[in-house]
Amino acid sequence: MSNLKALAYKLRKDTIDIIMEGGGGHIGGDMSVMEILVDLYFKQMNISPDNQDSPDRDFFILSKGHSVEAYYAVLCEKGFLDYEEVKSKFSKFGSQYIGHPNNKLPGMEMNSGSLGHGLPVSVGIALGNRMNGKTSRTYVVMGDGELAEGSVWEGFMAGNMYHLDNLCAVIDRNRLQISGSTEDVMAHEDLFKRVQSFGWHVISVDGNDLDELDKAFEEAKQTKGKPTCIIANTTKGKGSKVMENKASWHHHVPSLEEYEQIVKDLEECRSMQG
């Protein structure tokens, strides 16, 4: 697990370099979601370049598609994509490496970006796999700002209706969105009880703590008869005080001075993981 904790900070650095080369990106949410992606791709999910077309693979949907830069970094590390190619072509004219997931690329199941679609689609995938007798699990990661979309709550209703215990939703609860605090824009408290009232098994964890996340994902696998939602309480811009808990870093390209300080902070965090 210590290797994965260090990897999360290495991939944050990769993510920032992609953003710097491309001249844009949703850096704050990239940083908050990283441990979630690392645990799923390197510990939890049955998915790799070797089985990406197998009907028995696990399925992953990044509903908060604006955090695609972190997704790119993880898929590169996993062997789906080439990092140097992604970094050099990201957000360039005519490139397939765009600012939201592109399902023409290896490892990406769904185009996302218009928020609120990931959970309903994941309900369909999970239901279809169960009807086909598959043991595959489906995972979807949403942002907390995304919860203002009504289609999310239709997805919660349907997930419970069909008792989809092969479905696990993760909410990246960093409490910030493009226009400020989620609680000022569209409050979600008490989110735990709200999701639970839709018939889901709910777990609340520190979403930047891989040990807590790992236990939550294992608990989700053991939960039968209902889907699981993990509320991952994270820090937007996690890894450097330059970025942390600042709504202005929702979409921001660091200056050279900011970049140098962020890289220094990330390296210190990485070294502390042992």
Distance between the termini: 10 Å
Q: Report the CATH C-level class.
A: Alpha Beta
Radius of gyration: 17 Å
Shape: globular
Output the helix-strand order: HHEHHHEHEEEHHEHEH
How many structural domains are formed by the residues? 1
Query: What is the number of E strands?
Result: 7
What's the main sheet like? 5 strands, parallel
| CATH architecture verdict | 3-Layer(aba) Sandwich
Which fold name corresponds to the CATH topology? Rossmann fold
Sheet/helix structural class: alpha/beta
Residue windows where pLDDT falls under 50 for at least 5 positions: none
| Mean pLDDT metric | 96
Helix content: 40-55%
Give the neighbour order of strands across the main sheet.
1-2-3-7-6
